[in-house]
């Protein structure tokens, strides 16, 4: 893991960009004592520099003392896109514009993303946990599909916050039963791209004994800011 | 309004019992400066001294500085039960034991409760707001059926937390569209007596532009304690 830039922000948070092999990432920390770590798994098409993700990460570091890390998944953010990626995106745009079913396109798109992203998170976690300012325990917050895979594979994940805002492959809907860590599941009630009943069924399927659903009015990008605080308090209950 | 007892508790909260005509109630306060008021509407069959209700009220007063009031509704707690009340309760027990449908019994039972309780809350509110240590604004937290009626009738209610844990009459399910205050709707995912889909439909029906659903695993009495804090923070956003 190589740090490629370092910047002290006006909220006192230290923001460092890093690379780990091909994986580019950012780490936000607010102190030198070993802090619990939150892996911030942004949604499918977004960049690790997406403004809402950065705002939440800085808030979690500045106000709650967490270390927060984000990486760009293969084909996302700063990473090159393959011809296959580009074709799947074009297919998706065309199908959505035509009002055609998109489940199979999402399936073809998200399955390989999940398969690649989960091991990359594990490698990133190995590297991050060698830093003296990161002490664990570890939480994951963000994209549901990758988070399910990671929570099933990775015993160091102690709690997870999932955003029911993206396509979850059939394999991960099945795997949900194997997720047993405490869970905060966030749902936008009017998210046009994500059928509400499917999200409620997924919440029901998780194997966790402690799981909480938060639903708010509005579309995909309308999650109210107070949910960032609720998420941080959820982690405060489980990452101590 | 007559205060009939006064006790300073070990958390510093002043607990005063009062009567207002036939209505017995309790007021919890933690200071002398005008505080926002929360009307704590406990569930149908419970007493204003129900331990979880008292614990939540004291916590809201001690930790958040709210004034909190609870009253016994007609036929509940310290108040006499009519022969009609007793018969409805007996019918309900018999039907539940026999596994028979209970909606019509609940309807016969809860409709008059709601009709009587909402004006009693308004009279209690009139009296409480004359006290110098209560400044408003006012929130309601508790039983959904009474809360819907009160939120529709009473413009001084600025925010409401409803527990989807009891029967809501057809009239209040219709009235839900007229509820427009910010809303926190609490649901127990496995509440045997309260069909989940009916609660989700009710959440959907509320007219409020800002409404949040919190659902937790477990049965009717299994609401985790952290929801008390979440409720207090919800009110902190809306009662300032």
Task: Describe the 3D structure.
The structure is a homodimer of 240-residue chains. Chain A has 240 residues and is of the alpha/beta class. Chain A has one domain (2-79, 113-238): 3-Layer(aba) Sandwich (Rossmann fold), CATH 3.40.50.1820. In chain A, 39% of the residues lie in helices and 26% in strands. Chain A has a nine-stranded mixed sheet, sandwiched between helices. The mean pLDDT of chain A is 93. Chain A binds chain B through residues 189, 200, 203-204, 209-217, 224, 226, 229-230, 233, 237, and chain B through 189, 200, 203-204, 209-217, 224, 226, 229-230, 233, 237. β9 of chain A pairs antiparallel with β9 (211-216) of chain B, so a sheet runs across the interface.
Descriptors for this entry?
homodimer; Alpha/beta hydrolase (chains A, B); globular; Rossmann fold; nine-stranded mixed β-sheet; hydrolase activity (chains A, B); 7 helices; 240 residues; alpha/beta
Explain the layout of strands and helices.
2 copies of one chain form a homodimer.
Chain A (H helix, E strand, L loop, with lengths): L1 E7 L5 E7 L2 E7 L5 E7 L9 H14 L2 E5 L11 H15 L5 H26 L5 E10 H10 L3 E7 L6 H6 L7 E6 L7 H10 L5 E6 L9 H13 L2
Parallel strand pairs in A: 4-5, 4-6, 6-7, 7-8, 8-9
Antiparallel strand pairs in A: 1-2, 2-3, 3-5
User: Strand-residue fraction of chain A?
Assistant: 25-35%
What structural class should be given to the helix and strand makeup of chain A?
A: alpha/beta
**What is the helix content of chain A?**
25-40%
Examine the secondary-structure arrangement and name the CATH architecture of chain A: 3-Layer(aba) Sandwich
Q: What name does the CATH topology of chain A carry?
A: Rossmann fold
The CATH homologous superfamily of chain A is called: Alpha/Beta hydrolase fold, catalytic domain
Report the principal-axis shape of chain A: globular
Number of separate domains of chain A: 1
Order of helices and strands of chain A: EEEEHEHHEHEHEHEH
Number of DSSP strand runs of chain A: 9
Strand line-up in the sheet with most strands of chain A: 1-2-3-5-4-6-7-8-9
Q: Please identify the top-level CATH class of chain A.
A: Alpha Beta
Radius of gyration based on Cα positions of chain A: 17 Å
**Biggest chain pair contact, residues each?**
A-B, 19 and 19 residues
- Give the oligomeric state of the chains in this entry, treating copies of one chain as homo and distinct chains as hetero: homodimer
Quote the average pLDDT of chain A. 93
First and last CA, distance of chain A: 26 Å
Sequence stretches where pLDDT stays below 50 over 5 or more residues of chain A: none
The tally of helices of chain A reads: 7
